[in-house]
User: Fold this.
Amino acid sequence: MKASELQNVLTTLEKKIHKLVLKCNTLKKEHDKLVEENIELKEIIKNQNETIENLRNQENFTNIVASMMAENGQTGGFKKQLNRYIEDVEQCILHLSK
Assistant:
């Protein structure tokens, strides 16, 4: 193989390696971005699961109180007081989530 042919092969190989390095860097950046997005999405899912659990607890509490009210025949004053307690709890949850 002549020196000029060898030089051409090396030049071509160098260009291909350079392209591979650029592609590798691009893929590393994309990977890092996807890792960050994955972390953010996991945090969103965690917050949504906590919200769902809070809503379930609130629903369970409401059902318990409703059954207690039906048993005792108390609806008026007890319901108003319960609504105030629920509002207070919701305000506390909002305050703690800040």
